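Re: the request from the purification team.
They wanted to know what the chain is likely to look like in 3D before they choose a buffer screen. I agreed to run a prediction and write the result into the notebook, where they can find it.
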Amino acid sequence: MFGLILDAMRAVWSAITRTKNLAAENVALRHQLGVVLRPTQSRPRLKLAIRDRILWVWLSRIWSGWKDALRIVQPETVIAWHRRGWGLYWTWRSKRHGPGRSPVPQDVRDLIRKLSSENPWGAPRLHGELLKLGIDVSQATVAKYMVQHDKPPSQNWRTFLDNHVTSLASIDFFTVPTIRFGVLYVFLVLAHDRRTIAHFNVTSNPTAEWTARQITEAFPEDTVPRYMIRDRDGVYGDLFRGRVKAMGIKEVLIAPRSPWQNPFVERLIGSIRREALDHVIVLDERHLRRVLREYIDGYYHPTRTHLSLAKDAPIPRPVQPPEMGMVVSIPVLGGIHHRYERRAA
C-alpha cells in the first residue's frame, strides 16, 4: 500500500516538473523570437537590454534545461551576467548608508605633504613625527596624503633581539671615502635599550689598541653593558678582548658573513649613510667628526623617531599639543633634515 502511494506521488511530481519545464521553455523561445524580431532600420544589430539579461539569469536559476533552449548568446555569457550582477549587488550592500569618518582637516593634510616633501621618510616615520606634534591621525591617513618619492624608504629590519635588550650593545666599523680618495674608518657603539649611540670615533688606521681605548671611553663604570655583539673582524685582537673581559662584558660573536645577526648597528650604519654621509663630500677626519656630531647630537638623538621606541626619539621627546602654537621647521645638517616644534606666534 505504501509503495503505491509513493509511486503516485512520484508521478504527480514528475507531471508538475514537466509542466514547469515546458512553461519555462515556452518563455525562453518566445523571448528569443521577440529579441530576433526587435531590430529595426535604426538599430539593425541584435542588442540585449538589461531586462533580457535578468530574464535569462532567472531562467538559469530555476530551469535545469536552459542551456538547450538558448540560441541568441552562449551559455557562458549568461553565467557572466549572473556574476556581474552578483558583484553589483554586494557592492551596493557594502556601501555605507550613513555618515562616515570625519574628513582630515586641510591644515593637517598640508602639513603631511610638507613633512613628506622635505624629508625622504616613509609613512611610519611621518606618523611618529605627527604624534610628537600632537596630531592624532592614523598611519594609513599619513600614507594616503604624503608625497610619494621616486625612491621608496628603506625596509625595516625584521630580525630583532628581545632578550636582554636593556643590557645589550653592538659595535661595528664602516668606511667613508674622502675627497682625496682616502678611506676613513668610523667606529660605532650602539646601546640597544634606547637606540642611543654611546660612542663614535674616526681613524685612518684602526688597531686593536685604538679600538680597546674606544670601548673604555664609551662605557664608564656605571654604564657597562652585560653583552656586546660584534663580528669577527681581525681588528678585535687579544688586547681588545682582554679589555672587554676585564670590564665584565661578555662578547657575542655573530656567524661569518652574517651581518643580519647584528641588525641594530647595521641598520644604524645604513641610516647614517642615507641621511647624512650620502649628501656630503668628506674632506678629512675633522670634517667627518663634525658631520657625525651634528647628525647625532642635532638630529638622531633628540629628533629622529624609531618604530622600536613606540615612535619616540632616543632622547624622549614630549608631545607638543596644538595649543602650544604654530608648527615651525628647524633645519639640520644644512637642510638635509628638519626638526619640527610648536612655538607661540
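For the purification team: Residues 106-153+317-343 form one domain.
Please add any questions underneath this entry.
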